[in-house]
Amino acid sequence: MEIVQILLVAASGIFSIRFLYKKFLAPKKDKDCGTDCGCH
Amino acid sequence: MSKTINVALIGNPNTGKTSVFNALTGLNQKVGNYPGITVEKKQGSCRLNQTTKAHIIDLPGTYSLNASSMDESVVIELLLNRNDKDYPDVAVVISDIENLKRNLLLFTQIKDLKIPTLLVINMSDRMVDKGISLNVNKLEQKLKTKIALTSTRENKGIEFLKTCLLDFRSLSKVGCLDITKIDEAYFGNLQKVFPDQSLYKLWLVISQDVNFAKIERKKVQDATEYKTQPISHLKRLQQKETIKRYQYINQSLKETYSVDQSKATDYRSKLDRILIHRLWGYIIFFLILLTIFQVIFGWSSIPMDFIDERFTKLSEYTKINLPPGLFTNLLAEGIISGLGGIVIFIPQIAFLFLFIAVLEETGYMSRVVFLMDRGLRKYGLSGKSVIPLISGTACAIPAVMATRNIENWKERLITILVTPFTTCSARLPVYLILISLVIPEGKFLGMGYQGLTLMGLYLLGFAMALLSAGILNKMLKIQSKTYFVIEMPNYKLPLLKNILITVFEKTKSFVVEAGRIILAISILLWLMASFGPGKEFNQAEEIIMSRSKVKSFTAEQLENEIASHKLEHSFIGILGKTIEPAIAPLGFDWKIGIALISSFAAREVFVGTLATIYSVGNDQEETIKNRMKAERKSDGSLLFDLPTGISLMLFYAFALQCMSTLAIVKKETNGWKWPMIQLLSMTLIAYLSALIVYQILV
Ligand SMILES: Nc1nc2c(ncn2[C@@H]2O[C@H](COP(=O)(O)OP(=O)(O)OP(=O)(O)O)[C@@H](O)[C@H]2O)c(=O)[nH]1
Ligand SMILES: [Mg+2]
To answer: pTM of whole model > 0.80?
Structure first.
């Protein structure tokens, strides 16, 4: 049980870093992004 | 085999192009009752029948093909470039039944480009009210086109429009105006030099300063040599052209279009007499603002407290019912607390969007723009800058993009630079929580202090934007000011359904967008707060136990003491303590410092960050508000007292805490120079004003 929990936590951590990197740092192709808030 | 035809929607601003686009494609692009909503090419598709699909392109509004601003030139670039993959097979000119005459000018120009052109006359639902009658068949003959009479409001005519599109090959390609008639010598000569070019296209190219990067450049350059006439003569030819076009239009409308003045109820000019009055106009606007902010505070605190409690319960429930362990803690302390930091603001955000939507849809927003325009010239901004400044109350990103219809580059730059001072919806959560913590609930002349403070903050944002614009205007001298005419759209009773959909969609996308960022950030924060290097963190228990003062502590106090010692020596604690000296003079502790850093990504993360930090290692479940209320400084006094609260609000009012804004400013100004200048100066202003105010108040 313990190990499952630890794995889940590690996975969430990785997911978060990946998400934030993609959202804010990775270069983007902004096609069809339009004037939506937060799309850039 | 299915085939695709390209359809471009073209028309004057505010005629309902985007509404037709949405009706055809089922998409949900932004619509609003003032000109200049769409500033970019938008695409979508629509199935016309089993075998044919239409690729629909929504374009920014343009009054004519003689463009002067960036959003308008999008249209011309598309229409003059046959090689563009979006070059339309059929151009749909969208007009508004009430302004048909003016709208047809563009129609005749497009038709002269010899593109198959279809005329849509939109807003047919208003014909009865305005006493308008129209003989569609006869007008079709006069204009040599097919006409679709539509109302996107009542969803009428859209199916007919689709059948017309299918049949686009049968549209006549005959132009409206024989351009040589304007000046036979000049145009005859031109045609002789370029026998295989369309005369009207040549004329468009010659007579205006558009940058046609994609047209065969060589020919264009050659053509300019044949500008055998002085500019003033060419200008005169242009005027003649417009007059000729209007003659043609008047001819066509004479027997087909009529307005029965007696039926037309003219509440518009009556309303305008008050709403844009030199004195009453401002008073009414002020009263509307007052109401909005009172309502945001008065009506939404109950649902807010309710949601806050539900989230606390949820977190408690998770801890009790899931198997104990690391992930359960992450869920309860990190994720649920963090998400609570945005979800509790849903009611207020929805209210804000509701007000914005109503003001936009009724047409009142344009009156506000007009009112503001009078005062703005002193600050080097024209009326066109008002639209970005006002639409910035929702979000700075579309606002920065809306500057594209400002022709003058410096004026546009100044507007881009000062727009982020406008209080956007992401600042609202920060203000709301801080106001409810530090501003008393009392009333002044029947108006709550809290609502007044909120309004004060919005006005402060505008004031700062104006002040900086004034300063920038002095620094970057603007030679020519943009010539500004706002077209006052008619007042419209907003459709409740439309408004509710807009509010729902906007609130949803705000919460989902913010929620995802907060989710990711609170996971990382929780991780960094739950682990730490070295023995201070890992042996926190022994260290605390060995202190003599803890002898008299209850078990609960002891646990809290250990938890806070651990937090201070966790990774996040170390980071926070490092920056604390820099922000202590503003009245902030290290936890607020962490929230400042994390909310650099987006301001709306602020509350979620604090909620996560406060709940790590903490077993008593409390609502976010109560947790913040209970925070104390090292000397035992309340952390969120008046001086700290005000200082923090000022910081958020002025700081550019938004990565997405930086990204869009970089894109619009083509480089990092301006966004960096903007970031540094806004942060400096924020820091200094928070510092000064805190030092005075404390
Ligand atoms: N009464 C009525 N109003 C309509 C109709 N179609 C659109 N509108 C309203 O007209 C206004 C302008 O609509 P938009 O679709 O944003 O117009 P647009 O041509 O895309 O405007 P820009 O992008 O600014 O050039 C909005 O307030 C719509 O709700 C209609 O058929 N009837
Ligand atoms: Mg539009």
So the answer is: no
